[in-house]
Model the fold of this input.
Amino acid sequence: MGTTSNAQHDAESGPDRSHAGRGGRIVRSPIGWMLTGIVGIGLVSGLTATGPGPVPVLGAAAAVAVYWVVMRRVARRSTPEIARRGAGREALLGGAIGLGFILASALLVTAFGGYSFSWAGGGFLAVVWSAVVLQIGTAVTEELIFRGLALQALDQLWGGRAAIALTALFFGGAHLLNPGATAWSALAIAVEAGVMLGAAFLWRRSIWFVAGLHFAWNTTQQLLGIPVSGHNADGLFSVDVHGPDLLTGGGFGLETSIVSVVIGVLIAVPMFALAHRSGGLRPRRRVRN
Done:
């Protein structure tokens, strides 16, 4: 009687267990944990990105926690890319590159007669505080999504080169939703930002490095009074724009200037080389679930 009961129980529960097993494998696959993490971090970002005071920073911290849970519990992977040890050094190094990139681009556009700056006259501390908290939230959440989740998942599936190309296209395409976006603005951001940040991550394998680069990039533009991907916010300066949009970026901002695109590519090339030398630019490899 016990044997019959066990057989009946196995027959009834077997398909459910099989479906549950397949479901678990799908969620733990690179595409599964990538989408799970994107949904979770996207929800956090949607609720906190434009909040008052320090809310964007708190949202960034919550996004890191969501990322850790997804990677450790769903993907069952370690998370050295968000390790606290060395985080400050990586963020400062990335920030220095981002600052240099924007200052060099803005200076060249100014030298060609595209920009002229004047002091905006706002409260210094209030403007800097607003820019810093807003851009911390933006940089951390976007880098967790595009480089932490998408790039690493696609890298695991198809290798580093394909992962950079695909995430660059996704990153540029996501900016089509921004005010004043065009096909050129999406392509420019894909090339200068998507490729550079992808190469930067595969070189350093640190979210803090790419978040620092992204943060300094956005914050410097905002403080200079230049639109950040089509968004205008209070800065320390006001900018008057002269000349063709191809030089200045027009109303979308410096990121769609041909000057920034060229400089971005020039920065990305050595990052690719360093990623290859360090073993970060790996070929496609077999996925283990």
Observations:
- Residues 189 and 254 are 10 Å apart (CA to CA).
- DSSP finds ten helices and two strands in the chain.
